[in-house]
Amino acid sequence: MANHSQFGFQDASSPIMEELVEFHDHALMTALAICSLVLYLLTLMLTEKLSSSTVDAQEIELVWTILPAIVLIMLALPSLQILYMMDEINEPDLTLKAIGHQWYWTYEYTDFKDLTFDSYMTPTADLPLGHFRLLEVDHRVVVPMESPVRVIVTADDVLHSWAVPSLGVKTDAIPGRLNQTSFIASRPGVFYGQCSEICGANHSFMPIVVESAPLANFESWSSLLSS
Amino acid sequence: MRRLLARRMKFHLLGAFVVSVGCATLYKFIVAEPRKRAYAEYYKSYDPMKDFEAMKAAGVLECAPPK
């Protein structure tokens, strides 16, 4: 989860999120270069005393056409690379359905028999010591670690969005539509997210908690819940 | 004064370019590269089972309560 006053991304817990963090550094570096250039020139213009009666400047026109085109290509290439990487067919080991309601999530593990549960936010009054306010749920989504997981996201009533920043996942939940996303949890742990599409009064109070564990523990958890 | 504006403009345009590339390079070597190295170092000697056992002992996992 994010710390208070955190500025940057949460630590990446999936390979795609690691790529996204790296791309963000690249894009921010480019933005910093452009902003510092503009700031320098702006300061110069504001302190400049000479006036100009230039009517024609072919060379600089060429430079400030070609250079931005190069910058845009430098941004587009890694961006498209990651976009296509996200859509690779990765033979998921598990398929999970996340259904958004007002104001909770339902998870269906249809690979197993009768493994469906609702996930409501734990009210603050009922929070055990050390747990996170507005982030904890009564039933967490458990997935096996280091395994590709496919999540099919939909909604029952209004628009919602299933987002877990640490895993690099955010997918809109649209009534009547199935959206697919996938992730690999690189390590065991607990990853928090929140509904990311305004859906009514309790939009801020329907969090998502994904717990990743070794396959053996996932299997014992799933057989316990199925029975 | 002949070609003064052209000279100043050329000087400052080059200066602006150097400043912007300098800022980008600083960001790359102060933020981006250390972050890449940090991730690589973390996963080089990472033991997921050891991490899992520590989390289990701490009682943070719903699917693996501490005994």
TrEMBL record, chain A:
Positions of transmembrane segments: 27-46, 66-86
Membrane topology classification: Multi-pass membrane protein
Entry's cofactor comment: Binds a copper A center.
Alphabetized CDD domains for the sequence: CcO_II_C
A single Gene Ontology CC term: mitochondrial inner membrane
A molecular function (GO) term: oxidoreductase activity
Gene3D superfamilies: 1.10.287.90, Cupredoxins - blue copper proteins
Catalytic activity: 4 Fe(II)-[cytochrome c] + O2 + 8 H(+)(in) = 4 Fe(III)-[cytochrome c] + 2 H2O + 4 H(+)(out)
Listed GO biological process terms: ATP synthesis coupled electron transport
Alphabetical list of NCBIfam families matching this protein: CoxB (TIGR02866)
Protein family: Belongs to the cytochrome c oxidase subunit 2 family.
Name of the protein this chain belongs to: Cytochrome c oxidase subunit 2
From TrEMBL, chain B:
Pathway(s) annotated for this protein in UniProt: Energy metabolism; oxidative phosphorylation
GO biological-process terms attached to the record: mitochondrial electron transport, cytochrome c to oxygen
Bilayer disposition of the protein: Single-pass membrane protein
Protein function: Component of the cytochrome c oxidase, the last enzyme in the mitochondrial electron transport chain which drives oxidative phosphorylation. The respiratory chain contains 3 multisubunit complexes succinate dehydrogenase (complex II, CII), ubiquinol-cytochrome c oxidoreductase (cytochrome b-c1 complex, complex III, CIII) and cytochrome c oxidase (complex IV, CIV), that cooperate to transfer electrons derived from NADH and succinate to molecular oxygen, creating an electrochemical gradient over the inner membrane that drives transmembrane transport and the ATP synthase.
Subcellular location field: Mitochondrion inner membrane
UniProt KW keywords: Membrane, Mitochondrion, Mitochondrion inner membrane, Transmembrane, Transmembrane helix
Keyword Glycoprotein: no
Quaternary state and interactors: Component of the cytochrome c oxidase (complex IV, CIV), a multisubunit enzyme composed of 14 subunits. The complex is composed of a catalytic core of 3 subunits MT-CO1, MT-CO2 and MT-CO3, encoded in the mitochondrial DNA, and 11 supernumerary subunits COX4I, COX5A, COX5B, COX6A, COX6B, COX6C, COX7A, COX7B, COX7C, COX8 and NDUFA4, which are encoded in the nuclear genome.
CDD domains referenced in this protein's UniProt entry, alphabetically: CcO_VIc (cd22901)
PANTHER family in the cross-refs: CYTOCHROME C OXIDASE SUBUNIT 6C (PTHR48416)
Record's GO cellular component terms: mitochondrial inner membrane; respiratory chain complex IV
Species for this entry: Gymnorhina tibicen (Australian magpie)
Annotated family: Belongs to the cytochrome c oxidase subunit 6c family.
Entry keyword annotation includes Transmembrane helix: yes
Lineage: superkingdom: Eukaryota
Protein name: Cytochrome c oxidase subunit 6C
InterPro entries in the record: Cytochrome_c_oxidase_VIc, Cytochrome_c_oxidase_VIc/VIIs, Cytochrome_c_oxidase_VIc_sf
